[in-house]
Predict the 3D structure of the following.
Amino acid sequence: MNPIEPHSNKITLQSSTPQTIKLAVYGTLRKGYGNYYHFLQESSFLGIYTTQNKYRLIISDYPCVLPYNGEGYHIVVDVFEINLQTLIEIDQFENHPIDYERHQISLNTGTIAWIYTRDITDNGIHLKEYLERGKA
């Protein structure tokens, strides 16, 4: 499987059963960080994982994972189980698909989760984990 399929940003919902979605986050949406409280506090936290493949996590104006090219690190992510309404709200927050694009990736456990990537210029400084200034 290609780690990030170019058109893998659509979610197919099953008919009448409630759908939950696994979302991997790496920046200010991580547990305890600023945007977590606005979007994910009511969602189920599944744990801290790493990406199965290496990605380039950079800080530009915001933290962002660049599209897959095999360089970088196995990124540390928090994984949440969310509902469709939460996904829609985070899509709007991330300005998907204009600023960030949502793709499916594999985690170190083999679990598949959605993650947001941003296709901007690589500044060459790749991080393994985003640690917000001032957070303990």
